[in-house]
C-alpha cells in the first residue's frame, strides 16, 4: 500500500483538478420507462415489469413526470433547457443491468451549461460550472454474500434485486474544476451538500444519501504547479455521504501525490471508498465514452420542449436554498459569522422552527448553538436527536421571562427534557426547581451571608461594589441556585443601606 503524503505537502507541489458526477434518484411514483412502482425497501424483485427485466418484445415509454422533474432541476442549476433531447443506449454488460445496456442521454442532454455558486465555510464563494444534467435509468442492486467487506472481492456469491432497475435518475456532471487548491476537499463536500439541498427543496427526490437517493462519483487528478495539462484522473464511485465525499477527495489527493512523488504513474480507473479505513482501493480500468458504444435509442422518440412549458415549470420552482439563507439572515439580524456558524453546525432548520414557534432569533440561536449543542456533544448525538423540540426552547424562555426560573435552572431543566421527563413547566413543578421568591427565606439567607462576611460588608460600604459577588454566592448556594441573582443583589444593597 502506498504511503500517503500529507494534504498540505501534496498541495504545495500539485494543483488538484476535480469533477463530480452526482446521480439523483427521482421520487416519481413509477419508473423511468415502465409503470413499475418506484418504491424503496420492498421485497426484492417485486417492483418489476417485463420492461425492467429487458424481456424480448417490450417497448419503453417515457415517464412525463420524470421529464418535468429533470427540467425543474436543470432550471434550478441555472442550465439551458434543450429544445430537443434524445435518449441513447449506453452498452455494458453487468448482472444488475438486465438489458445489457442503460438507457441514458449522451450528446443531446435535457439540460446543459449551468452553474452553482458554492459558499464555503468562511463565506468565500466558488463557482462550479455544470456541463450537463441528463436523464437516465438506474441499475439494479447487487448484494455480495460472504466475505468480510460486503464487496464482490472475497464474496461466495451475489444476489441481484431489480427493484431499482429503471428508477429515474438525473446525472449532474460538472466541467473540470480548477483553482480550488487547499479547499478542494471542502469544496467537494459543499458542492454535494448544495445539490442535495436543492433537490430536497424542489421535492424531486427523497435525497436520502444513506439510501443512495443521491450518490456522487468524485473525479480527482493532479498536475504539477505551473502545468497546464491535466493529470490522469481516478473516479471514486458511489460515495453516499457529504463527509465521505470530502474525505475521499482528500485521500485521493494524498495518495496520488505519493505515487507521483515516487516516480509512479496514475492509472485511469474507478476506485471504491472504504468508510472504515477512510481510504480508496482500485476498482476497474475507467472506460471512456467510446467504450460504451453509445448509439441513439431506436424505441424512444425525442423529448421536445417549448418556451411555454419551460416557463410553466419555472413558475413552480420554490425559493432556492442559497436565496432562502440570505433572506433568513436578514430577517433574523445575524452577523455573517453568526449565520455561517449556524449553517456549518447544521442547525438552520432547527433555529427556523424555533423562531416560528415563538422564540426570538437571539434566544433560538443562544440555545441551539449553546447548551443544546453542548449537551448533544456530551451525549454523542446530533442536536436534532437530543430530544429537545423547538417548543421546549420557547417554554424555557417563557419561564425565564416570567422569572419562574433563571438561566442556571433552565440548563438543568433542559437536561431533564432530553431525558424524556416531559415539558419544562411540568419538570419545574415536579422537581421543585422554581426560583425562590419567598422574601422570608431569601431574607434569611441574605442576613446569614452578611453576618458571616463582615470584611466583605466593609468593602461594599467603602464603595468597592465588585465585592458584592462574595455575598451573592453564599445566598445562591443556600437556595441551591434557585434565587434570582438580581433580586439577591438588590436585597443586599437594601440591607446595607448602600
Give the key terms.
Arc Repressor Mutant, subunit A; 498 residues; 9-stranded mixed beta sheet; alpha+beta; 3-stranded antiparallel beta sheet; nucleotide-binding; Asn/Gln_amidotransferase; 16 helices; 3 domains
Whole-number mean pLDDT: 91
Strand order of the largest sheet: 2-6-7-10-1-11-12-13-14
Rg, Cα atoms, Å: 30 Å
Query: Could you say which overall geometry the principal axes of the C-alpha atoms support?
Result: elongated
Structural class of the secondary structure composition? alpha+beta
Q: Return the domain count.
A: 3
Strand content: 15-25%
What is the strand tally?
16
Task: Give the end-to-end Cα distance, rounded to a whole number of Å.
Answer: 76 Å
The main β sheet shows up as: 9 strands, mixed
What would you note in describing this structure?
Belongs to the GatB/GatE family. GatB subfamily. InterPro entries: Asn/Gln-tRNA_amidoTrfase_suB/E, Asn/Gln-tRNA_Trfase_suB/E_cat, Asn/Gln_amidotransferase, Asn/Gln_tRNA_amidoTrase-B-like, GatB, GatB_Yqey_C_2, Gln-tRNA_amidoTrfase_suB_CS, Gln_synth/guanido_kin_cat_dom. This is Aspartyl/glutamyl-tRNA(Asn/Gln) amidotransferase subunit B. Pfam families: GatB_N, GatB_Yqey. A hairpin with a 4-residue loop joins strand 13 (269-274) and strand 14 (279-285). The N and C termini lie far apart (76 Å). It is built from 16 helices and 16 strands. The protein folds into three domains: 7-314, no CATH class; 321-431, no CATH class; 439-496, Orthogonal Bundle (Arc Repressor Mutant, subunit A). Helix content is 38%, strand content 19%. The chain has helices at 7-13, 64-76, 184-202, 242-261, 307-314, 321-332, 336-344, 348-356, 361-378, 390-401, 407-418, 424-431, 439-452, 454-461, 469-478, 485-496, and strands spanning 14-25, 80-81, 84-85, 88-91, 101-104, 111-119, 125-137, 141-145, 157-161, 168-174, 214-224, 234-239, 269-274, 279-285, 295-296, 303-304. The strands form four sheets. It has a nine-stranded mixed β-sheet. The chain is an alpha+beta fold. Helix 8 (348-356) packs across helix 9. The longest helix has 20 residues, at 242-261.
Amino acid at each position: 500500500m502506498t504511503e500517503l503524503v500529507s494534504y498540505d505537502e501534496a498541495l504545495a507541489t500539485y494543483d488538484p483538478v476535480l469533477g463530480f458526477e452526482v446521480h439523483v434518484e427521482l421520487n416519481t411514483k413509477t419508473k423511468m420507462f415502465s409503470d413499475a412502482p418506484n418504491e424503496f425497501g420492498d421485497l426484492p424483485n417485486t417492483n418489476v415489469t417485463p420492461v425492467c427485466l429487458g424481456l424480448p418484445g417490450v417497448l419503453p415509454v417515457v415517464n412525463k413526470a420524470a421529464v418535468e422533474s429533470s427540467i425543474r432541476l436543470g432550471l434550478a442549476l441555472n442550465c439551458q433547457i434543450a429544445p430537443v433531447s434524445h435518449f441513447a443506449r449506453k452498452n455494458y454488460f453487468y448482472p444488475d443491468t438486465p438489458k445489457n445496456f442503460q438507457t441514458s442521454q449522451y450528446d443531446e442532454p435535457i439540460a446543459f451549461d449551468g452553474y452553482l455558486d458554492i459558499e464555503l465555510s468562511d463565506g468565500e464563494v466558488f463557482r462550479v460550472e455544470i456541463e450537463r444534467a441528463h436523464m437516465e435509468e438506474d441499475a439494479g442492486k447487487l448484494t455480495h454474500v460472504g466475505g468480510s467487506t460486503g464487496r464482490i472481492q472475497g464474496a461466495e456469491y451475489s444476489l441481484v434485486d431489480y427493484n431499482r432497475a429503471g428508477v429515474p435518475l438525473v446525472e449532474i456532471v460538472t466541467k473540470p474544476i480548477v483553482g480550488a487548491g487547499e479547499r478542494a476537499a471542502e469544496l467537494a463536500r459543499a458542492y454535494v451538500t448544495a445539490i442535495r439541498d436543492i433537490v430536497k427543496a424542489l421535492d424531486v427526490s427523497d435525497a436520502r444519501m444513506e439510501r443512495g437517493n443521491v450518490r456522487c462519483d468524485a473525479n480527482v487528478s493532479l498536475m504539477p504547479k505551473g502545468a497546464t495539462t491535466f493529470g490522469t484522473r481516478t473516479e471514486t464511485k458511489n460515495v453516499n455521504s457529504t463527509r465521505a465525499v470530502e474525505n475521499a477527495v482528500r485521500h485521493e489527493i494524498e495518495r496520488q501525490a505519493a505515487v507521483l512523488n515516487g516516480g509512479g504513474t496514475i492509472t485511469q480507473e474507478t476506485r471504491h471508498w472504504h468508510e472504515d479505513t477512510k481510504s480508496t482501493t482500485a476498482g476497474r480500468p475507467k472506460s471512456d465514452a467510446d467504450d460504451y458504444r453509445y448509439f441513439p435509442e431506436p424505441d424512444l422518440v425525442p423529448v421536445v420542449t417549448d418556451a411555454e412549458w419551460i416557463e410553466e415549470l419555472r413558475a413552480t420552482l420554490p425559493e432556492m436554498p442559497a436565496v432562502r439563507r440570505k433572506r433568513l439572515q436578514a430577517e433574523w439580524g445575524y452577523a455573517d459569522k453568526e449565520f455561517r456558524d449556524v449553517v456549518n453546525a447544521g442547525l438552520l432548520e432547527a433555529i427556523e422552527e424555533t423562531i416560528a414557534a415563538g422564540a426570538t432569533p437571539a434566544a433560538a440561536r443562544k440555545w441551539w448553538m449553546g447548551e443544546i449543542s453542548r449537551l448533544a456533544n456530551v451525549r454523542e448525538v446530533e442536536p436534532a436527536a437530543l430530544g429537545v423540540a423547538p417548543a421546549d426552547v420557547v417554554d424555557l424562555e417563557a419561564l425565564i421571562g416570567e422569572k419562574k426560573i433563571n438561566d442556571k435552572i433552565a440548563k438543568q431543566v433542559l437536561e431533564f427534557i432530553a431525558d424524556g421527563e416531559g415539558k419544562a413547566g411540568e419538570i419545574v413543578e415536579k422537581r421543585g426547581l422554581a426560583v425562590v421568591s419567598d422574601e422570608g427565606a431569601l431574607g434569611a439567607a441574605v442576613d446569614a451571608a452578611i453576618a458571616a462576611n463582615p470584611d466583605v460588608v466593609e468593602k461594599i460600604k467603602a464603595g468597592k461594589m465588585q465585592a458584592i459577588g462574595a455575598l451573592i454566592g453564599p445566598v445562591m448556594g443556600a437556595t441551591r441556585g434557585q434565587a434570582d441573582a438580581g433580586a439577591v443583589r438588590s436585597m443586599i444593597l437594601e440591607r446595607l443601606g448602600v
